[in-house]
Amino acid sequence: MTDFILPRRHLSRRTFIAAAAGTLLLPAVHAADAKAKPLVFAHRGASALRPEHTLAAYAKAIADGADYIEPDLVCTKDGVLVARHEADLTETTDVAKRSEFASRRTSRKLDGETHTGWFVDDFTLVELKTLRAVERIPQSRPGSAQYDGMFQLLTFEEVIDFVAAQSATTGRLIGLVPELKSSTYFAAHRLALEDRFIATLAAHEYTRRAPVEIQSFEVANLRYLRDKLGRRANLRLMQLVGVGAMQPSDVIAAGGKLTYGAMATPQGLRDVAAYADTFAPPTRALIPLKKDGSLDAPTPIATDVRAAGLRLETWTFRPENRFLAADFRNAAGEHARNEAGSVAEIRRYLQLGLDGFFTDDPALGRAAVDG
């Protein structure tokens, strides 16, 4: 990776000097250190209720008590980090209806799968700002879909500024849990995320003092960030994992053999602890489902994560019946919201001793933790 530094005009003199020296003064307290309760991470904002990664989704999440909000990060053609869950814009924007961009529809291999659509790295920020966000699963979330077309896409810097403003307004320190998406893909397109990300953190007073937990499904980018950022009071690194024989994209690209299943073993977890602070498997890796869709017995992963000295966080709780274990569904139909069932399911997983969890509906996560 090559070093990337924001232009000096974006930095205060004090920040520029500190960034250049590689020393940023940080507070001694991380949000989690001041509270014993599990952290509620707003997955793409309050994405069960508002189109994901919009100001509306983030505002709703903060109002509903989220401890952290999540901006997934991808990169535009002109090198700007923006908040989108994936490089493919097709499902979460109105790009397919925009005739001026029809010729940019193409196919790309992204994280091991071929996608056909419109990709963020084919758009400048100015072009991207003409698009509007839409609900990804309108059949399950019609309440969110009513906001289609209302909100523009956000840069990472805009997200930071918004969270800082909300923190100042509410008097509550609100964390950020950014995910670097598809690092290997963007590096191959000469749009490496990591140094842009580091420079953005250094350019903002809020991210020099507020809690930031950086996540990725890849390994090399987290190792790189640990080397560049060191161990700081307000920063943590989260290793996201899939299950079984699945592999991180960077491992595949390098011809390696490491699997997520191997990473979840006692030895694998000790290896992760050398560069990360948190291990974050999907919920069903912690408590899998039986054939009838109900919860089975917990796996050893939670115990093994603790033994390795790592934090345990998980993803993602969603409030519709279709996403719940059979134990917690009601008779309202697969697309129906089931708030009581979602809270009950979260509480079952909290019995494992979670340090934090992602939820599409932070109000329900807050209820599960505080109730």
TrEMBL record:
Q: Please name the GO terms that the record assigns under molecular function.
A: glycerophosphodiester phosphodiesterase activity
> Might you report a single GO cellular component term?
periplasmic space
Please give the SUPFAM superfamilies that the UniProt record associates with this protein.
PLC-like phosphodiesterases
GO biological process: one example: glycerol metabolic process
EC numbers on record? 3.1.4.46
> Keywords for this entry?
Glycerol metabolism, Hydrolase, Signal
Catalytic reaction equation(s): a sn-glycero-3-phosphodiester + H2O = an alcohol + sn-glycerol 3-phosphate + H(+)
Q: Which residues form the GP-PDE domain?
A: 38-369
Q: Name one Pfam family in it.
A: GDPD
Signal peptide residues are 1-31
Per its UniProt entry, what is the enzyme's top EC class, as one word? Answer: hydrolase
Q: Which family does it belong to?
A: Belongs to the glycerophosphoryl diester phosphodiesterase family.
Name it.
Answer: glycerophosphodiester phosphodiesterase
* Species this protein is from: Pseudoduganella plicata
**The organism's lineage?**
Bacteria, Pseudomonadati, Pseudomonadota, Betaproteobacteria, Burkholderiales
The encoding gene: glpQ
